UniProtKB/TrEMBL annotation:
Protein name: arogenate dehydratase
Organism annotation: Zizania palustris (Northern wild rice)
Keywords: Amino-acid biosynthesis, Aromatic amino acid biosynthesis, Chloroplast, Lyase, Phenylalanine biosynthesis, Plastid, Transit peptide
Principal subcellular localization: plastid
Protein's pathway: Amino-acid biosynthesis; L-phenylalanine biosynthesis; L-phenylalanine from L-arogenate: step 1/1
Length: 338
């Protein structure tokens, strides 16, 4: 914390003459005190040693007459606009209060989606709000229908979700945190259906790709892509499909009443998705530990544009931990934000 600095500027009293003993000396004058209490905070206070009786007029000889009462200052006029309604920036303390009590958190997909599990992991006591598309989740927060959004940013197997990079440029939301979720795919089917009865598997395209080898071993040849994993489970349950299974989460099986025929069917067991937590207001980083800063930007066409953009970080000795393709998404540790 910056040290407190103070400055006093006294007003010197007027010169007095000894020719008259009836006069009053000018009372001890006011002083101005300026204080800087910390970074970005300053205060100015004016104090006076004079009484509420006031000060008499000063003559040419430096003497003053009897004090003249000073009327009480009228109450300040009320502000024409109350600024307390303006949202304050989030602090890291707001996000570290893990419960998220009363928060509405938007996610993409149907109930039982991995994104909902990520939202519950980020804010355990929140109320989740399912959205049909990624863009809908962004708009839900912007239009105050939700307080936060939890959306996938990249998967350890499938790579980056470029659609959400583009939406970060189109919308005025801020990344205020991240959460990592281990993805454990399950093969789900209606009660009574066995693996040998399945001819088709339905799920999100990435989930199908992540389970390709295992599905082939099961003898399931046909693939059907839908918008999200939980949506596939919902379709299988609603239509009572007997030859089609869904690749979704354990939670989706409970919600839609499906049986789990196989668990952890992803080809690579180290399957992790990183989700970003979005809010309308930016976070104020704390200084007691490093914070990850994310920057998403686009470049104009021209020679050396990428070199110039990355040179901004190199000249300041900022180490980038990740640079994504298409939309440059740069991550670095520290409290400096360019």
């Amino acid at each position: 914390m910056a040290s407190t600095a103070c400055l006093r500027l006294p007003f010197l009293p007027a010169r007095t003459s000894s020719c008259s003993s009836r006069s009053h000396r000018v009372p001890r004058a006011s002083s101005i005190k300026c204080c800087a209490a910390g970074a970005g905070t300053s205060s100015v206070s004016i104090s006076s040693a004079a009484s509420r009786e006031g000060v008499g007029a000063v003559g040419a000889d430096g003497l003053v007459g009897p004090p003249v009462p000073v009327p009480d200052s009228p109450a300040p006029a009320p502000a024409s606009r109350d600024l307390h309604w303006l949202p304050r920036p989030l602090t890291s303390a707001d996000l570290m209060d893990a419960g998220g009590e009363g928060l509405k958190v938007a996610y993409q997909g149907c109930p039982g989606a991995y994104s909902e599990a990520a939202a519950k992991k980020a804010y355990p006591n929140c109320q989740t709000v399912p959205c049909e598309h990624f863009d809908t989740a962004f708009k839900a927060v912007e239009n105050w229908l939700a307080d936060r959004a939890v959306l996938p940013l990249e998967n350890s197997l499938g790579g980056s979700i470029h659609r959400n990079f583009d939406l970060l440029l189109r919308h005025r939301l801020h990344i205020v945190g991240e959460v990592r979720l281990a993805v454990r795919h399950c093969l789900l089917a209606n009660p009574g259906v066995k693996i040998e009865n399945l001819r088709s598997a339905m799920s999100h395209p990435q989930a199908l790709a992540q389970c390709e080898y295992t599905l082939t071993e099961f003898g399931i040849e046909h693939r059907e892509a839908v918008d999200d994993t939980a949506g596939a489970a919902k379709i299988v349950a609603e239509k009572m499909l007997q030859d089609t299974g869904a690749i979704a989460s354990f939670l989706a099986a409970e919600i839609y009443g499906l049986n789990i025929l196989a668990q952890n069917i992803q080809d690579d067991k180290d399957n992790v998705t990183r989700f970003m937590m979005l809010a309308r207001e930016p976070i104020i980083p704390r200084t007691d530990k490093p914070f990850k800063t994310s920057i998403v930007f686009s470049l104009e066409e021209g020679p050396g544009q990428l070199f110039k953009a990355l040179g901004v970080f190199a000249l300041r000795e900022i180490n980038l931990t990740k640079v994504c393709q298409i939309a440059l998404f740069c991550l670095f540790y520290g409290s400096c934000v360019l």
